[in-house]
Amino acid sequence: MADPQWDPYDRNCPTRRVLDRIGDRWTVLVVGTLDDGPMRFGEITRRIDGISQKMLTQTLRGLERDGLVKRTLYPQVPPRVEYELTEAGRTLREPLKALEDWATTHIGGVLEAREQYDQAV
Amino acid sequence: MADPQWDPYDRNCPTRRVLDRIGDRWTVLVVGTLDDGPMRFGEITRRIDGISQKMLTQTLRGLERDGLVKRTLYPQVPPRVEYELTEAGRTLREPLKALEDWATTHIGGVLEAREQYDQAV
DNA sequence: CCGTATCCGGTCTGATACTG
DNA sequence: CAGTATCAGACCGGATACGG
């Protein structure tokens, strides 16, 4: 399947859909964190600065729904839940890394340009 | 500037900032469109399906502010305005392309997983 | 032609409180 | 520990009307 000659300016094209997916506040950070290996809910919470329980749950559910994260519940008391990237989830890391690299390299210039622009007003 | 050992889970890290920048609905599409070369406002509008004047203006202003797009006004009547990617703007295309490629390759699986997940409910 | 100004509804998020 | 429920504010984006 795939490749029905997508028009990139069509709102249903894959890129748009993927951006809607990862463009939110937390998804990229969660994927990046899980790249370190399987991890418990609490561990992820501690690693990501400022995320709330609600948003972490919501983000993980979304990723699980899209087959990018696998959720494993160990029926214990207290419960233990582990999350890990699926095969598909791991492949997402590469393009994300490219973006991170760009960010690190260019953020200085961007911030500088921003300051200049704001002063010119 | 740059490289004060960013904590990727800090909300001020470059990646986060860049994602806040390009994570919106239109920025990526505008950058992709301008990659074809300098272009007038109306031309961009026609190329991008569904964008409103307001959002195009807003997106272009943001990109201009960050030094990723250059705006040139030709003082004519009626006015003629051209937009083009700056050097920095062009470098952004590469990581964006990586994301597009991932999207094209994996969107099928994602959509499929989503369907299964939703049925399981 | 290329915008700006305004209103307004939907979504995203965070804070808080509660549960198996 | 790992969630769910609820509420309210911020923000995004679209529609519309008007201006240089």
Helix count of chain A equals: 5
Overall domain count of chain A = 1
Superfamily (CATH H level) name of chain A: Winged helix-like DNA-binding domain superfamily/Winged helix DNA-binding domain
CATH topology of chain A: Arc Repressor Mutant, subunit A
Poorly predicted runs of 5 or more residues of chain A: none
Give the neighbour order of strands across the main sheet of chain A: 1-3-2
- Greatest chain-chain interface? A-B, 58 and 58 residues
- Summarize the helix and strand pattern of chain A as letters: HHEHHEEH
Show the helix and strand layout.
The structure is a homodimer of 121-residue chains.
Chain A: H1 14-22, H2 27-34, E1 39-40, H3 41-47, H4 53-65, E2 69-74, E3 80-85, H5 87-120
Chain A binds a DNA duplex (20 and 20 nucleotides) through helix 3 and helix 4.
Task: Provide a descriptive summary of the structure in words.
- Two copies of one chain form a homodimer.
- Chain A contains five helices and three strands; from the N terminus they run H-H-E-H-H-E-E-H.
- Chain A is mostly helical and 121 residues long.
- Chain A has a single domain, classed as Winged helix-like DNA-binding domain superfamily/Winged helix DNA-binding domain (Arc Repressor Mutant, subunit A), CATH 1.10.10.
- The first copy, chain A, has a three-stranded antiparallel β-sheet.
- Chain A is globular.
- At the A-B interface, helix 1, helix 2 and helix 5 of A face helix 1, helix 2 and helix 5 of B.
- The structure holds a DNA duplex (20 and 20 nucleotides).
